[in-house]
Every structure is written in structure tokens, then in C-alpha cells.
Design goal:
By secondary structure, the chain is α/β, with parallel strands linked by helices. Helix content is about 35%, strand content about 20%.
């Protein structure tokens, strides 16, 4: 359904199973009404939501955030009684999607679902865009949390983090670590490791994880920080050796694999995916969306689905999520500056 304050759908990103097209929705700002539930009404007396809600991702169809968004959207449609449409707008490491949503009407009808790297890393490497997640977004809910796994090619003579540090220390600049691209969370995980371990490894960026993994398996790459579900089959088949996970706690998919912090105190890379609205969205709408999504993610079947993907849902308030966004954005900016990371 169309509104008089209709907005055009620019470019923006993240992926899925079937691509539904939304004819461009915009909206009227909602004002709260009284009631036992957050019964939100527009100036015309319509309860929120009274038309389709669009969830924009920076992922390509079938990508991580797309799959997350679709799993939530299917159930959120039932919970809210209005169609939830996933709109993938890949490109510019999430910035196309970020800009599109931040310029949309702050009425709850255009939302953003992104991994932490797209909102805490990408803006620092696209500073000319003048986009700031803390200023331009209203955090709604953190929908997942996950870590990475540190792996090496079997030819690397290291079976533990300490041994890897010793090898790299003995031969500075000889080992390389591959990643899905400059400024990716995989890249920054490696830079943080170098910084904390006081070692020198050469970063070799690829355009996407698949190519990086192929070269790592072939032996052209030495080290990689990557997603557990992606690398797990290669670990099980002996093509790669898992040394550690980047979160403080061990990963359920790799229970015998220690954390990097067990050998390198203070090291942690914990990523997440989150849902946002444009800055200025009424708090009543944010609260209603948070409550609905939190109820969905607390269901046993969703916990099982998330666990199978190597992620988990950790219940935090909207305020806690906003604080996490702020902290990660500032910390990532400091790491990028210290490591001298420049955009490609």
C-alpha cells in the first residue's frame, strides 16, 4: 500500500532465499496511543504496522544477513499481522543499505538488518560518506552473536596459538594471513592479533571469503580468521587446522578448540547482527519491534536454527545494544587507525 509521503528505493544490500520486491514504501510518523500493548497510531488513526514493513540488508540473496532477515521476517509477519519484506541491497560493504535506511522516513516501515562489520567498520573506511551509525540509526535489537575461528594451513608448523606466535616471531613478514577484503572483520581480527602478539604477518585481501578459503586450502595462504560454519567442513576433513576461536567462550561447534584469549589475554573478536531503524523513529515503535523480535528469537526452534549456524541470541535491552554499537564503533575506529588500514 502506498502513502502520500512515498520514498524511492535507492540501492542497498543483503541476501536470501526468494527475493520479494517492495514497490517503495514510505510512511507517516506514528504517534503512540494508550493501551495495554504498544497500540501505535498514525495521524489517520492507523495502528502500527498498517502496511508492509521493509527490512533492508547489505547482503546478497542467500548471504548471512539475508538468511537471518528472512528467518525473522517470516515469523514477524505473523506476530505483527503485516507483511515483512526483505530487501537486499548489496554493495559498498553495506554502505548502500546503511544510507538508504538512514534517509528513510523514521516511521518504522523501513528497517535495517546488518552484521556489525557493516555498521562499525565500513563507515570508518568510507568517511567521505559522512555516515555515522550512532547518529544515523536507532538500534532496535541485537539478533545474533558469533565469533570467528583462527585456522592455519597444515603446512604451517603450529598447532597452538603460542606456537603460531613463535613461528611468526622467528620469521617476521614471512607468514601471510588471508581475508575476504580490506576492512572486513576477518582482516581486523588478524590486525588485532598482530597488534596484541607483537608479530608481523602480511595481509592478503581477496574479494570475498570463497576465494580466500580456496587459496588457503591450496597452501597459497597460511593463516585465516573466518566464520566457523564456513571453515568447519575443511577443519573436519583435515584441510585446515583450527587453533582457536576469537570469543572468550569456546564455540559449541568446536568444543575442543580453545579461545585465543587463553594464550593471548585480552584478545577478543565478537561479532553480531542487529536490527535498526532510522534515527528519530518514535520509541514506542522501537519498543514494539524489539519485543516482537525478542519473543521470536527466544523460541526453541529459533535457538536451534541459530546454533546450527554457529551463532546465538543473547538477550540485551535496546539501551545495552545502543551502548555496544557505540563502544564497538569507537574501538574499531581506533584499531583501524593504529593498524594504518586504508580503503582499497
Amino acid at each position: 500500500m502506498r502513502d502520500k509521503t512515498k520514498r524511492s528505493c535507492h540501492e542497498l544490500s543483503m541476501a536470501g532465499l526468494l527475493v520479494l520486491a517492495l514497490a517503495c514504501c514510505g510512511a507517516q510518523a506514528q504517534t503512540p496511543s494508550t493501551g495495554s500493548e504498544p497500540a501505535l497510531s498514525s495521524s489517520k488513526g492507523q495502528a502500527f504496522p498498517s502496511k508492509p514493513v521493509r527490512v533492508v540488508t547489505g547482503s546478497a540473496p542467500g548471504g548471512g544477513a539475508d538468511l537471518t532477515a528472512r528467518a525473522i521476517a517470516q515469523r514477524l509477519t505473523e506476530a505483527l499481522g503485516a507483511p515483512i519484506i526483505v530487501d537486499d541491497r548489496p554493495g559498498a560493504t553495506g554502505m548502500i543499505a546503511n544510507q538508504l535506511v538512514s534517509k528513510a522516513a523514521p516511521d518504522g516501515y523501513t528497517l535495517l538488518l546488518q552484521p556489525s562489520s557493516f555498521v562499525t567498520i565500513s563507515p570508518h573506511l568510507n568517511s567521505r560518506e559522512g555516515w555515522d551509525p550512532v547518529k544515523n540509526l536507532a538500534p532496535i535489537i541485537q539478533v545474533s552473536a558469533y565469533g570467528l575461528v583462527l585456522v592455519v594451513h597444515p603446512s604451517v608448523p603450529a598447532k597452538t596459538v603460542r606456537e603460531l606466535i613463535a613461528v611468526a616471531s622467528a620469521k617476521p613478514g614471512v607468514l601471510n594471513f588471508v581475508s575476504s577484503g580490506v576492512g572486513s572483520n576477518f582482516h581486523l581480527a588478524g590486525e588485532l592479533f598482530k597488534q596484541r602478539a607483537h608479530i608481523d604477518m602480511v595481509h592478503v585481501p581477496y574479494r570475498g571469503s570463497p576465494a580466500a578459503v580456496v587459496d588457503l586450502i591450496s597452501g597459497r595462504g597460511d593463516v585465516m580468521f573466518g566464520l566457523v560454519p564456513v571453515l568447519l567442513p575443511h577443519i573436519k576433513q583435515g584441510r585446515l587446522r583450527a587453533l582457536a576461536v576469537t570469543t572468550k567462550q569456546r564455540n559449541a561447534l568446536l568444543p575442543a578448540t580453545p579461545s585465543v584469549a587463553e594464550a593471548l589475554p585480552g584478545y577478543e573478536v565478537a561479532s553480531w547482527e542487529g536490527m535498526f531503524a532510522p534515527s528519530g523513529t518514535p520509541q514506542e515503535i522501537v519498543a514494539k519491534l524489539h519485543a516482537a523480535v525478542a519473543a521470536i528469537l527466544s523460541r526453541p526452534e529459533m535457538k536451534e536454527l541459530w546454533a546450527g549456524n554457529g551463532v546465538e541470541y543473547v538477550s540485551v535491552t535496546t539501551e545495552q545494544f545502543a551502548a555496544r554499537l557505540r563502544e564497538d564503533y569507537e574501538r574499531t575506529g581506533a584499531l583501524i587507525k593504529a593498524a594504518g588500514v586504508k580503503p582499497e
